[in-house]
Amino acid sequence: MNEIPEVIRTIPLNYYLFLSTALFVIGVTGVLLRRNAIIIFMCIELMLNAVNLLLVSFSAYRSDPNGQVFVFFIMAVAAAEVCVGLAIIVMIYRNLQSTDVHLLNKLKW
Amino acid sequence: MIPVSVIFYVFATLVAGSGLFMVLTKNVLYAAFSLLICLLSLAAIYVCLFADFAAIAQIMIYVGGVLVLILFGLMLSLKSSDAAQTSPSRNPIKSFLLAASVLVGLLFLIFNSNITALPGLGNIQPQFLTQKTSIYHLGIEFITTFALPFELASLLLLAALVGAAYISAGSKIK
């Protein structure tokens, strides 16, 4: 088993970069395009996953486990963020009867 | 036997396609379920990259935790009338332009930077990739080099749990 595996040999690192870029841009589009707060939230998760994919691919192509350690921390922080964020969104819904972010314009200049 | 690279291409298209569907669909529940497909196929891509710990953590944390929380949030904040369609965007053209400029900027960076010249990228060690599991090295890293951040992460999760319970309980707590 001392040869480089087929999937690492045939797929260059750039393909993972392109996939991650596509995922990140899809997330950015969603955040800019949608008005439902929960969908915006899901798009933020998508962007976090794009970064995770990049970290894991660099970790594999460098044969370095530290990238995966970082992925684990990002996942922990993302879980904490989702937990608090959804609590805030549920409170917003209780007060406004809607999760449309365009109703939250008190701080708008 | 199918080569693993074909599996990678299949799951990469699945990731991008379901992500795009999530952004463009009008139905909120369809968006949540396409996020499920997207996260599961990302776990498959992690397996292609020999990161089994990351794949399992992805399924356990994202699919088992985050997505269930998001579904609960959807159910708590959805009138049955507007499940099928959400309010349309006010300025889609501006949003698409801004997202396209982000895409162009990132692609410009990728094409103009010589990533393969980074130190360490040249020497792939097969024995690191083909080992039985990656958890051995990761566990050693977690309790030696990254012991303090590891404990801080647990503290952060506890604080988030208490904070979320307090916020969502609202005015019932006196």
Question: Describe it for me?
Answer:
Chain A: This is NADH-quinone oxidoreductase subunit K. Chain A: It catalyses: a quinone + NADH + 5 H(+)(in) = a quinol + NAD(+) + 4 H(+)(out). Chain A: Keywords: Cell membrane, Membrane, NAD, Oxidoreductase, Quinone, Translocase, Transmembrane, Transmembrane helix, Transport. Chain A: It is an enzyme of class 7 (translocase). Chain A: Its EC number is 7.1.1.-. The complex is a heterodimer of chains A (109) and B (174). Chain A is an all-alpha fold and 109 residues long. Chain A is built from 4 helices and no strands. Chain A has one domain (6-103): Helix Hairpins (Orthogonal Bundle). Chain A is elongated and about 60 Å long. The mean pLDDT of chain A is 88. Chain B is mainly alpha-helical and 174 residues long. Chain B has 2 domains: 1-79 and 91-125, Four Helix Bundle (Hemerythrin (Met), subunit A) (Up-down Bundle); 135-174. Helices cover 71% and strands 0% of the residues of chain B. In chain B, helix 1 (4-24) packs antiparallel against helix 2 and helix 2 (28-48) runs antiparallel to helix 3 (52-76). Classes of the chains: A mainly alpha (109), B mainly alpha (174).
Q: What is the ordering of alpha helices and beta strands of chain B? A: HHHHHHH
C-alpha Rg of chain B (nearest Å): 21 Å
- Strand fraction of chain B equals under 5%
CATH architecture of chain A: Orthogonal Bundle
| Number of E strands of chain A | 0
User: In percent, how helical is the residue content of chain A?
Assistant: over 70%
The shape of chain A, in one word, is elongated
Low-confidence stretches of chain B: none
Low-confidence stretches of chain A: none
Structural class of chain B: mainly alpha
- Which whole number gives the mean pLDDT of chain B? 86
Derived from helix and strand composition plus strand pairing, the structural class of chain A reads mainly alpha
The two chains with the largest interface, and their residue counts, are: A-B, 79 and 87 residues
Note the gap between the termini of chain A: 62 Å
Helix content, binned percent of chain B: over 70%
Overall form of chain B: globular
- Share in β-strands of chain A: under 5%
Element pattern of chain A in H and E: HHHH
